[in-house]
Amino acid sequence: MSPYDETVVAVANRVVDEAIAAALGASEQEAVVGVAPAGGGKSYAIGTAVRAARDLDLRVAVATPTNEQAFALVSGIAERLTDETVTFVPASTVTLPTEHRRPNTVEREARNTGADSILVGTLSKLGDAFGRGSLRPVDLLLVDEAYQANAVHYYMVGDLAPRHLLMGDSGQLAPFTTAPAADRWRGLDEDPLLTAVEVLLRNHPDSAEFRLPISRRLDPRAIPVARTFYPGHEFAAAVKPGVRELVLAGATGPRENRFLDAVLDHAAPSGWAHLELPESAVLTADPEAIETIVALVRRLFERKPRVRCERHRSWGELRSDQVAVAVSHNDQKALLRMALDDAGFQNVVVNTANKLQGLTFEVVLAWHPLAGLLEVDDFHIDPGRLCVMLTRHRQACIVVGRAADRELVNGIPPATPSYVGWDSNPGLEGWYAHESVFAALEAHRIAMGSSV
């Protein structure tokens, strides 16, 4: 019996095919947008689009916001299209890592790619090369992670191809700009703070949009929380309930492990746990939160965790590199890194939400952005930050916060700036997103000090 919900997968594949057909069949100077939830298969859709374009003998450029994303696409496309050569176009200080090289990948300067059919590079590099005249136009431009790309970089590649297909996750962290006093551009068509998708739809509101109705990363347990970040976007899990399992050995040992065991025993079958430390106003790099997270990681591996899923139907040990800790600040990252290293967990990944975008792990511990704050601010209330933290996992996510965190988003939201001609309000959207997440996690809340 298939571990996948074939109906969900079939509908999603049909939407992807329709988006690609719309892009390939578009007239000159047209663009199509594909909107996906977390783990919706954006990069796979990009690879499918490359295959379809090459079947029509079209020359294709694939652009991403970051080099790491470009590296992954080079190897991913090369593995799927073994009969094609995939060319990576690097910046002067960048080279394709060995682990992403394949027999059918090459690395070339832009001026030497005139005969190449599949080009991959960052938006910045492809845009710069095209602007300097060293990169020939292509027939189709594909932009992956288009909600992470800002308007400036998208403008740079606007004339690189007559047809565009933009794929992105609308729940991710928005790009930022170094432009001085950038808010003065708010409401204008050329606003540098807009994403690539936003600037396209603002200037071309009739562009076709396709919403992918699937998450291949998240399983059915994770979907109710994830949906809070995508209002109006209906999607379901690709895998069936119960396909993914995390099991732990029996809880034995010192009595002080009792609370940690309660958190882990709840998270393993339900996919979620919301651990609440006592109410307290704390430093950003809260020592108690660090100690608790390290203790949870230690106790997790003391209990010999095993996992299985749709990819591996036999039980296997959970590896430490399949576990990540998501934080908001670099000082939290640095102190947690040292503490985990000292505890012998050098392979457990620790990084900020910005760096974890696009990555997947079996188990994630998320240090809640609002933990211990006295009041909310634009940085910590950003809905994209919380969305990334709570959508990286395949098996379980443990949220670590403090008892008063939810009170920060109770009552009337604070006043936020408004701009003529600009409808988006990230502060208010973040307020409601956090409020909805707290409600969705209520059934998984475990307060430290409670009887467990």
Which architecture name of the largest domain does CATH use? Answer: 3-Layer(aba) Sandwich
Which range does the strand content fall in?
A: 15-25%
Helix count from the secondary structure assignment: 14
- CATH homologous superfamily of the largest domain, by name? P-loop containing nucleotide triphosphate hydrolases
Give the averaged pLDDT, no decimals: 93
Query: What's the story with the biggest beta sheet?
Result: 8 strands, parallel
Give, in spatial order, the strands making up the sheet with the most strands. Answer: 4-3-5-2-6-7-1-8
**Under the CATH scheme, which class of the largest domain?**
Alpha Beta
Q: Mind telling me the C-alpha Rg? A: 23 Å
Work out the count of structural domains: 2
User: How helix-rich are the residues, as a percent range?
Assistant: 25-40%
* Class per helix and strand makeup: alpha/beta
Distance between the termini: 38 Å
User: Could you name the CATH topology of the largest domain?
Assistant: Rossmann fold
**What general outline do the C-alpha atoms trace?**
globular
Count of beta strands: 19
Low-confidence stretches: none
3D structure, described in words:
The chain is globular and about 70 Å long. The mean pLDDT is 93. The protein has 2 domains: 210 residues, Rossmann fold; 225 residues, P-loop containing nucleotide triphosphate hydrolases (Rossmann fold, 3-Layer(aba) Sandwich), CATH 3.40.50. The strands form 4 sheets. An 8-stranded parallel beta sheet has the order 4-3-5-2-6-7-1-8, sandwiched between helices. The longest helix is centred in the N-terminal third of the chain and has 19 residues. The protein starts with 5 loop residues before the first helix and ends in a 5-residue tail after the last strand. Helix 1 crosses helix 2, helix 2 packs across helix 3 and helix 9 crosses helix 10. It is an alpha/beta fold and 452 residues long.
